[in-house]
Amino acid sequence: MTSTGIRLHAPAPGWSIAADVVVVGSGVAGLTAALRCQAAGLKTVVVTKARLDDGSTRWAQGGIAAALGEGDTPEQHLDDTLVAGAGLCDEEAVRILVTEGPDAVRRLIETGARFDESAEGALELTREGGHHRRRIAHAGGDATGAEISRALVDAVRARGVRTVENALVLDLLTDAEGHTAGVTLHVMGEGQHDGVGAVHAPAVVLATGGMGQVFSATTNPSVSTGDGVALALRAGAEVSDLEFVQFHPTVLFLGADAEGQQPLVSEAVRGEGAHLVDADGVRFMLGRHELAELAPRDIVAKGIMRRMQEQDADHMFLDGRHFGAEMWEHRFPTILAACRAHGIDPVTEPIPVAPAAHYASGGVRTDSQGRTTVPGLYACGEVACTGVHGANRLASNSLLEGLVYAERIAADITASHAENGLLTRVPRPLPYPETPEHPLLTAEARFTIQRIMTDGAGVLRSAGSLAKAADRLQQLHTDARDALTENGKTAEPGVDTWEATNLLCVARVLVAAARLREETRGCHWREDRPERDDTAWRRHIVVRLNPDRSLAVHTTDTTDFPTTLPPQAPQEQ
What we know:
Elements: E1 16-18, E2 21-24, H1 28-39, E3 44-47, E4 64-65, H2 74-84, H3 91-111, E5 125-126, E6 136-137, H4 144-158, E7 162-164, E8 167-174, E9 180-187, E10 195-200, E11 203-206, E12 217-218, H5 227-234, E13 239-240, E14 245-252, E15 260-261, H6 267-271, E16 275-277, H7 297-311, E17 316-319, H8 325-331, H9 333-341, E18 351-360, E19 363-365, E20 377-379, E21 384-385, H10 397-420, H11 445-457, H12 463-487, H13 495-516, H14 534-537, E22 541-545, E23 551-555
Parallel strand pairs: 1-10, 2-3, 2-11, 3-7, 11-20, 12-15, 19-21
Antiparallel strand pairs: 4-6, 5-6, 8-9, 9-10, 13-19, 13-22, 14-18, 16-17, 17-18, 22-23
């Protein structure tokens, strides 16, 4: 796979660091990969957009799923994952996840993560939507992500892994053979380096998290602007299944005009017995699915949206009053505090909730070792598409996927180093271009993109809404391109303009895939195509970026997840 030659408009790097491996991102996936690479003797650098503990991992409330309980088996975990994935999971990828998961969690505990235990010292496991057994390990009640992040950050600091914080990664560097040669990045005025620089390394691990900020309301932190997916596309990598954005069913409703990161009300609250009700107190999920409130997330989100449509309401309610104050304070202290901070007391009143963008099931296409279609470029965690999640991620599989596949990536990089010394050479990146290769959008375009995506490509989608979104996104793209082509003008390089440009890139790909998939499957819900169509659409959609910045979109021939070998040229759209 050759590079597109497209790069963000940015100053040439003014400083550089040499390494064997550069890991971009500091969630569970990134830090696990970094720790494993460092332990294998590889010179490892972690680049992260804010502070080490500011990624999506720390916000994960529910927990981490693995077959750790008595009577549970990886096979049962696999079955639940395949059902949630609605026919598009890669079964081998899932088998890797559920088989290697339990030991990976045990290694995480050895690293220092402390999960909640019973009085007898056994892991205290809970249940979430789509799971038929209690297999969710949690910490601090509903603060699992924060505890995992703490343990991994402490380990990274204790073991002396080099880190560059407050740094936005810009683009992949490649050598004359098209092999990865590192990344360019911009450090935001903090620490040893300032401005644009480079980390030269023959192995790059993308662990940049999600892209929830492409929508107006999301559970994702403000840093989740799709930077990893956009970088990979510009580098010539392929992305897959980006239309499958999971909208978490129960996000604290702060008003119809609320924007940005919204507080999550964990699925574990329903797992412990809270009920979804409408304004009249009616449990509307009963009869819609055998698991009622504990159905897979796409089912619950659709159930809420349908009830909202029926009643012309903008939210529903989650009723956990029967828990009592003691259970709320012990089991869900974070959620209790968030609700009370917004004037709602779950002990005495139902919580207003509505779906919001939560998780990207698709991403940069990888194989079972985390390798992308660009030699030397790996991806893991939410930025990747391993085939594990299919059309809808099973609750609490995300932390486990980041953990398991990060370990596999580190093993592959280490094996490559041991077998053929690939990492002993200093990569020589191609010269940095003197002219801007990619027009930048203004910072204000971010909010325009978010409104376009929420209106046209949110929970409810149709041919009409997606066409309108595509036209509006294309206009933003065309205006920026023409301004650059005709008079050499583009927005001033900076974090806000780079982020807005990345958001437009991933938004265009998401909408293109959603328009092409003319069915309802998993968390992709087409109002005009309400049925699942296995004959035509039990396959993956793959997108790459052409050198002229147009999108090349194609579908796979079968349900098998494609290899990361370069495919034949797809039809342009």
